[in-house]
Amino acid sequence: MTALTPPAAVPRRPSRRPVTGGAGRQHHGGPVTYLILIVVALASLFPLYFSVVAASTSQSRIAQSPPPLVPGANLLANLRAVWDYNGPGGHTLGLAMVNSVIVAAAVTVSTVLFSTFAGFAFAKLRFTGRNALMVFVVATIAVPPQLSVLPLFRIIAGLHWTDQLQSVILPSLVTAFGVFFMRQYLSSALPTELLEAARMDGANSWRTVWHVVFPVARPAMAVLGMLTFVQAWNDFLWPLIALTPSGNPTLQVALASIGGGYDINESVIMAGAVVTTVPLLIAFAVFGKQIVGGVMQGAVKG
Amino acid sequence: MTASTTASPTRPPGAAPGPDGAEARRRARRGRLYRLDVKGSPYLFILPFFLLFAAFGIFPLLYTGWMSLHSVSTLTPDQSTWTGLGNYTMLGHDPVFWKSLRNTVTIGLLSSVPQLAIALGLAHLLNYRLRGRLFFRVALLAPYATSVAAAALIFQFIFQQNNAGFANWVLHLVGVHPVGWEAGTWSSQLAVATIVMWRWTGYNTLIYLAAMQAVPGELYEAAALDGTNRWQQFRYVTVPALRPTIVFTVVVSAIGSLQLFGEPYLFGGSGQGINGGPDNQYSTLALYVYRLAFNSEHLGRAAAVAWVIFLIAVVVGAVNAVVVRRLRKSA
Predict the structure, then answer these.
(1) CATH number at residue B301
(2) Contact criterion met (CB < 8 Å) for B49 and A118
(3) Contacts of A271 in chain B (CB under 8 A)
(4) pLDDT tens digit string along A70-88?
(5) What transmembrane ranges does the database entry give (chain B) (predicted)?
(6) Nearest-CA residue of chain A relative to B292?
């Protein structure tokens, strides 16, 4: 197995971090710091802005130099064109959007649930083989998922599951990273006394999980859920194999096929890129703080 | 570890079998259930993970190895004939395989080295007391929310060959001739690496930032007392403290490079994406797996390439384990 040993880390409880500690925390950023950060932030956002600009211009404008830098008037027309791609009324893109929501939601809920169960057991329960099994979990975090696609293809071909959503959902129902993440969190955040108290009250393991573990684990479950959702929403290789663009695609598969179309103009392709990206960007704008905090906690850090 | 959840369920002192037999039996049954719960439920909790992982992680991995020893067509995946190491021998003589391997390394280096260096520097800057801190962080992380597919299409557009492409227009502004990005080896690999960098620099920045905030402030105070400037503090306090995190991100980037597929595939567009360019100049190992399996219909040879990827991942993991052990010792 690929032994990726994450730096032994105790994830912080997601309470607001005090403003002490850390590198230059005591220093204020100077003008050069701001200048660099502004340039980098612009570089980070520019491709997204540029895709909106390109999606709002026309084919003829796009072919001219200099490239367009301010939005044109064709955004709605291009959005409609991409929405009607492969058949009117969102036949492809609308269906793909619904499919992406279903897949990402199913994968997220199950990953969070199963990871919390296993993370709790590894963090707080004692059983034979626990340490060996945990080493196994950690060792498998870095196994490239790419390696599964060929046999999985053979299996779903045999089951006639091409274009069925379960073929993309089932292989992603839980991750080793999720188990590791929840274990790290629960070992420090879940007081053993709380479990003892539940035991004293006669609660069995399942009631304990429901009434004690879940409430404590909620912040970490939210973080893991968010990371999982982004990953599932953006997953590409396996959906591209298991689903077909003209059959029952997710957004990424549909977008890839639109981008590869011969008879479609660039501004319409960019409109497609905008449509598939906007839902997550809205989420980022609204929950920016939580997402940033989540990624920083999700970082398996030393 | 927990005491009560793991202690064997001894009967409460007052619960010795009394005259009331029914009561005693009920107690005994409850005791058995309790014992069953304590002994069994940990396994039930971890069961879903291990079942799913066995089905969708371990089994496919081994099966890929088995497939790589057979000649299988993607069109008739049920019929396979044993070829031993034939697929691997074929790879040895396959120039596209070697090119893809080389490209995977060069694109990996082109994207990871600058990316992680920039992320480290940016994390240092973000760690200062700043106005608009949240804005910078969210802006840096926005590309992470963008899918590979959308990002590759946007950058394909930015790196258009003609003068109208944004990248070429910027070069034109500084007096450089337009570049045929997709056609050249280095230019196309740079473009593909740029997509990767754009998507992951912000993410790695936040990982480094999180690690920096865990560095005890006293270390900096002590360094400041020694009269070090900010750069020296960064060099001699921050970087050493972040070493485990840096190793971690290097490994994650390496594994990520091994899986590089969507970026080159979509950057090349409908015509050349599957080949990684007319001359395979930006074909990667993962892309070659896809091409062999779903374009050339050679499932067995594709499996052999996939297994090579796995072996490289194992080597990366082993090197990582050695480095981490060294770091622990020196710490």
Answers:
(1) 1.10.3720.10
(2) yes
(3) none
(4) 898 899 999 998 988 877 7
(5) 42-63, 105-126, 138-159, 179-198, 241-261, 304-324
(6) A150
**What CATH code is assigned to A30-298?**
1.10.3720.10
Residues of A in contact with B321 (CB under 8 A): 3, 5
Residue in A closest to B54 by C-alpha: A171
Q: In this complex, do A24 and B135 lie within 8 Å of one another by their Cβ atoms?
A: no
- In a shared domain, residues B103 and B42: no
Cα–Cα distance measured from residue B168 to residue B181, given in angstroms and rounded to the nearest whole number: 9
Task: Please report the number of interchain residue pairs, chain A to chain B, with beta-carbon separation below 8 angstroms.
Answer: 401
Please state the length of chain B. 331
Would the pTM count as exceeding 0.90? no
Enumerate the residues of chain B whose CB falls inside 8 A of the CB of residue A64: 164
Q: Which among A146, A160, A287 is the top mutation candidate for probing chain B, defined by the most B β-carbons within 10 Å of its own β-carbon? A: A146
Q: What value does the mean pLDDT take over residues B198-226?
A: 90
pLDDT in tens, A244-295: 988 999 999 999 998 887 777 889 999 999 999 988 888 888 888 888 888 8
How many domains are there within chain B? 2
* Residues B138, A284 contacting (CB under 8 angstroms): yes
pLDDT digits (tens, 9 = 90+) for B138-160: 999 999 989 999 999 999 989 98
Say how many CA atoms lie within 13 Å of A242 toward its Cβ.
26
Task: Give Cα separations from A44 to B101, B105, B135, B144, B250 (angstroms).
Answer: 30, 25, 12, 10, 21
Contact assignment for A295 to B318 by CB distance below 8 Å: no
At position B103, the amino acid (one-letter code) is N
CA–CA min distance A22, chain B (Å): 4
- Residue in A133, A152, A205 nearest the CB of B46: A133
- Closest residue in chain A to residue B231, using alpha carbons only: A24
Position A24 scores a pLDDT of 46
Residue B182, C-beta contacts closer than 8 angstroms, at least 6 positions apart = B159, B161, B188, B191, B267, B268, B272, B277
**Are B237 and A23 within 8 A, CB to CB?**
yes
Residues 6+ apart with CB under 8 A from A279: A97, A233
**Placement of tokens 């905090």 in the chain:** A293
